Amino acid sequence: MPQSVTKTKRGSQRATESRYTVGLAPNLAHKVERYADSVDTSMSKAIAALVRLGLENQESRKREFFHKLKQNLASDDPKQQDRLVDEFRALILGR
């Protein structure tokens, strides 16, 4: 994957950033452009922020799902709970 390295004045590495080219459908590009304008940032930074927020939301939804699953299995044996959670995880997440 393409990467660029940002260096400080002293020559030490400060951060590594990955750069990608993405194609967006026109209606999605228009929404991202409106978002970027509303938060006064570049399209690139807006896309990065939206991706980060989407990934965080996905993780939060997974945690909530498994928390609710454990609550619903509270009357069962704890070993059974863990086994069922692992089975659901494998089915839903492919792990």
What does this structure look like?
This protein is mainly α and 95 residues long. The protein has one domain (25-93). 62% of the residues lie in helices and 12% in strands. Strands 1-2 form a two-stranded antiparallel ribbon. α1 crosses α2. It is elongated and about 55 Å long.
Shape: elongated
Return Rg in Å: 21 Å
Q: What structural class should be given to the helix and strand makeup? A: mainly alpha
Number of strands: 2
SSE run: EEHHH
> Tell me about the biggest sheet?
2 strands, antiparallel
| Quaternary structure classification | single chain
Unreliable runs: none
Report the mean per-residue pLDDT as an integer: 81
Number of structural domains = 1
Task: Report, as a whole number of angstroms, the end-to-end distance.
Answer: 25 Å
**How many DSSP helices?**
3
- Share of β-strand residues: 5-15%
Strand order of the largest sheet: 1-2
Please give the structural blueprint.
Blueprint: E1 3-7, E2 13-18, H1 26-38, H2 43-72, H3 78-93
Helix pairs in contact: 1-2
In short:
The protein is mainly alpha-helical and 95 residues long.
Question: Main attributes?
Answer:
95 residues; mainly alpha
